[in-house]
Amino acid sequence: MATIDTRQSNDGQTTYRVRVRIKGHSTQTATFSKLSEAKKWASITEGAVLQDQHFPSNESKKHAMREVIDRYLEEVLPRKSKNTIYNQTLQLKWWSTQIGDVLLSDISPRLIGECRDKLLKAHKANSTINRKLSVLSHVFTIAVNEWEWIDDSPMRKVSRPKEPRGRVRFLSDDERECLLAECRVSKNTSLYTIVVLGVSA
């Protein structure tokens, strides 16, 4: 049946997330800023589902970006490595401070582009900016494909700053001779041949 979860954001704002689960029907969810509205929606939706009168509503107008990020942090991020969890938690918290109060339906490529440009003006490295954009892109991918909270990802139209090519470095003559000498005494009898072919290419 209906359940209501109370959530509080870092800025002290309280929201109420409603879930209506009835066997044989898809789960319906919505988020409200007032408990009274949450209870009213739960009651109406529950009755409509039982009478087979319920029709899907526009989920993107019910969920703010902060809720999407919080759910991603709770359900998706724990599956990743410890180092990735630490870095992406910081990146997603940054996005939450920038666009957390915006409804999914109002998130546009222009809005995300403005956040990207803010980072550029702060002289952040392009690689740092791209990592922030990448994790946000995955949040939208999950919201589209698994949660069905939004029809399409706005990230598809957001360009990313180009990163400089890595520096190409060649071994000096002394370094090459040292490397080959170590390969000759290696227990791997094929290593010397492989390295010779590699440095000769």
List the helices and strands and how they pair.
Elements: E1 2-8, E2 14-20, E3 28-32, H1 35-50, H2 65-75, H3 82-99, H4 109-121, H5 126-145, H6 173-184, H7 191-200
Antiparallel strand pairs: 1-2, 2-3
Helix pairs in contact: 2-3, 3-5, 6-7
Summarize the model shown.
Helices cover 50% and strands 9% of the residues. It has 201 residues and is mainly alpha-helical. The N and C termini lie far apart (67 Å).
**Major sheet:** 3 strands, antiparallel
Tell me what the CATH architecture of the largest domain is.
Orthogonal Bundle
Distance between the termini: 67 Å
Poorly predicted runs of 5 or more residues: none
Instruction: Identify the quaternary structure here.
Output: single chain
Overall tally of structural domains: 3
Taken in chain order, the helices and strands follow as EEEHHHHHHH
Instruction: Tell me the helix content.
Output: 40-55%
Which CATH class of the largest domain applies here?
Answer: Mainly Alpha
- The general outline is elongated
CATH superfamily of the largest domain: Tyrosine recombinase, N-terminal domain
Write the CATH fold name of the largest domain: DNA polymerase, domain 1
Write a structural description.
The chain has 201 residues and is mainly alpha-helical. The chain has helices at residues 35-50, 65-75, 82-99, 109-121, 126-145, 173-184, 191-200; strands spanning 2-8, 14-20, 28-32. It folds into three domains: 2-57; 65-157, DNA polymerase, domain 1; 169-201, no CATH class. It has a three-stranded antiparallel sheet, with helices on one face. A hairpin with a 5-residue loop joins β1 (2-8) and β2 (14-20). α2 (65-75) packs antiparallel against α3 (82-99) and α6 packs antiparallel against α7. The N and C termini lie far apart (67 Å).
